[in-house]
Write a structure and sequence with these properties.
Elements (H helix, E strand, L loop, with lengths): L1 H17 L11 E6 L5 E2 L5 E8 L2 E2 L9 E8 L16 E3 L6 E4 L4 E10 L15 E5 L1
Parallel strand pairs: 2-9, 4-5
Antiparallel strand pairs: 1-3, 3-7, 5-6, 5-8, 8-9
Keywords: Signal
Protein name: DUF4399 domain-containing protein
InterPro entries: DUF4399
Length: 140
Amino acid sequence: MRNSLAAAAILGVLWSGAALSAADAPPNAYCYIGWPSDGEVIAAGKPFKVWFGLRYMGVAPKGVAFKHTGHHHLLIDTDLPNADEPIPNDRQHLHFGAGETETMLELPPGKHTLQLLLGDENHVPHHPFVKSKKITITVR
């Protein structure tokens, strides 16, 4: 009896909205790039680590619909995508659908911009956008 009451309580929490679409974000939520820093000069020809941070929300893998969660997308040398469509999946929009919070990246020499954007369980940006500041790095 006690197990069935616990299961009913858990289902009640899930039914109340905790497992609904993650598209709405708290207005104070944001992502940040922990490293590299804005203005960083990176050595060419070898991968470097980029690590991601998130405040006032949680990380969940793609396909998991849980309130106030999402997964990171790293935007390279591009602007923010359309707010109502899935984030593209290409060389300029890297998806981290397993819930990763860091990656190794290698870029050609030159100036590059990096920005994080959180996406919901279907890779759609949250409302409002949960994003980092766009940073510029130089690879030499």
